[in-house]
Amino acid sequence: MSKILIVMSAASTWVRTDGSSYPTGYWAEELAAPHEKFVEAGYSVDFASPGGVLQPLDRHSADPEVAGANCAEYVAHAEKALREFGPLLTLSEVDIDDYVAVVLPGGHGPVVDLYQDSDLGRLLARADAARKLIGAVCHGPAALLSAVDEEGKWLFAGREMTAFTDEEEQLFGTADGAPWLLASRLREQGAKHVGGPAYQAFTTRDRNLFTGQNPASSAPMAEAMIAALR
């Protein structure tokens, strides 16, 4: 059975420019929807993070007023999947050759740790060189920033991608005080960032790179990856 790797952040807080800490964690839909799609398609799914740390749930993703009426189903699926998998794999020990694809879900965690994680950077560089599929959704594309060459050049510069937009960050209420905004940073680093309407499903594909703009894009991104794998 072919395997998919989901790489989670290990961050539980996001330090703001005023020094305050904003609680964060994995976003249930962004983990659960792809996991469900991959398992239904016959793939097994592993979970990994820096240090093998299990990130907490972002409680906003369990709030129907924020995450929609179906959020309880996503929370239940994500918690069950993580519980049944057991201890997460340590990112530094993962062999990307064991997987056909790697997926990077969001929550704000990736802008805290994954964007500068050297172990992830090496893993993504190897995955991209081997033309394995790489998927990233919402704040997950921040993790792509970790992939740089020996001279510090970003390996995904020039690639088309989407991510949680600056507009969406403003609407969510977390733009003011953010150390940096994801879509702006991706453009600054050379990405061809594109976006759709706020909080509506929107995905892109550039060769082996698949990206989704927001939680609603999680399932469509996974479906596009499954179609490509087939």
TrEMBL record:
User: Which InterPro entries does the record match to this protein?
Assistant: Class_I_gatase-like (IPR029062), DJ-1/PfpI (IPR002818), Prot/Nucl_acid_deglycase (IPR050325)
Chain ranges of the DJ-1/PfpI domain:
30-226
The signal peptide, as residue positions, is: none
Pfam families in the cross-refs: DJ-1_PfpI
Q: Which Gene3D superfamilies match?
A: 3.40.50.880
Presence of keyword GTP-binding: no
- Keyword set, alphabetical order: Glutamine amidotransferase
UniProt entry tagged with the keyword rRNA-binding: no
Name assigned to this protein: Type 1 glutamine amidotransferase domain-containing protein
Species this protein is from: Amycolatopsis silviterrae
